[in-house]
Amino acid sequence: RIGAGIGALAYKLVPSRVADTRVNIGLCFPELSESEREHLVREIFREGGIGVIEVARGWMRPPSLLLKACRVNGVEHVHAAQAEGRGVIILGAHYSHLDLSGVIISQQFPLQVVYRPQNNPVADWFIRNRRAKLYTGQIDHADMRSLFKALKNGETVWTSVDQDFGLKQGVMAPFFGVPAATLIATSRMARVNNSPVVFVHFMRNHDEQTYTMHFTPPLANYPSGDDVLDATRLNTELETLIRRAPTQYMWFHRRFKSRPAGEAAPYAKKNRKRRK
User: Fold this and answer.
1) Taking the model in full, what pTM does it have?
2) Where does 91-248 have alpha helices with state H?
3) Among 45, 55, 52, 65, which Cα is nearest to 100's?
4) Separation CA 3–CA 50 (nearest Å)
5) Are 96 and 58 in contact (CB under 8 A)?
6) Nearest CA among 206, 188, 191 for reference residue 247
7) For the CA atoms of the chain, what is the radius of gyration?
8) Span 13-25, pLDDT tens digits
9) Hey, which of 84, 104, 128, 142 has its CA 20 to 30 A from 56?
10) Where are the extended beta strands (E) located within the chain?
11) Residue from 111, 112, 107 nearest 63 by CA
């Protein structure tokens, strides 16, 4: 209830995020009516608020208590991939309960996690400190050398591929039917040691008390050598997983800020005050 209240408050107090979410939902769910889309936006903020509390639960409570509330499917795919000794890439996404899912994953097998440093140094220190208790290592997303080294050493690495980092590091590929800048780093990573690629999905069940974690079989014939084809495969797989519980995905970020040549970004321009 507290988390739902936080989400309702954010819906009223953070209009820029609400506007970005409306744009994303309008682009990705055009089949819905305007009222249905707005209901979805409200639910996304409700789920996001609950996710704040769930992250706190994940960091503060013993993992054994959380494991009792979570059903894990498909972990045998990861174990089989690890047995090959070529490193394993676990692909996730930015769900509202990201760090809670991290607790559950860390109890299944040792792994390193790829992260983007926080702009606030205090927040960055706190998050890294909490995560250090769960993972064997934390790799800056810009530190590709350490990432490749981990895979060559046969380690398992968890990363995400669902944010827009521009076209210097990616290609345009459809995501929910909309062209989106998609990272090509995953195919580069997979080539390093012929590492298997497995998706993981985490969701809160309808009872809002239990969870389900699902690991997919490794992608077959990946990478193909065609960056656009590989990026499209990743987005298609990710879309299928997100649709299992679409309101639990972080639709707040500007997923479609990079556009094809000649096409304007769909989001309102941010007001940035100049500082002396």
Assistant:
1) 0.90
2) 98-106, 121-131, 144-152, 185-193, 227-242
3) 55
4) 4
5) no
6) 206
7) 19
8) 999 999 999 999 9
9) 142
10) 70-73, 88-92, 112-115, 137-140, 156-160, 170-175, 178-183, 197-204, 211-215
11) 107
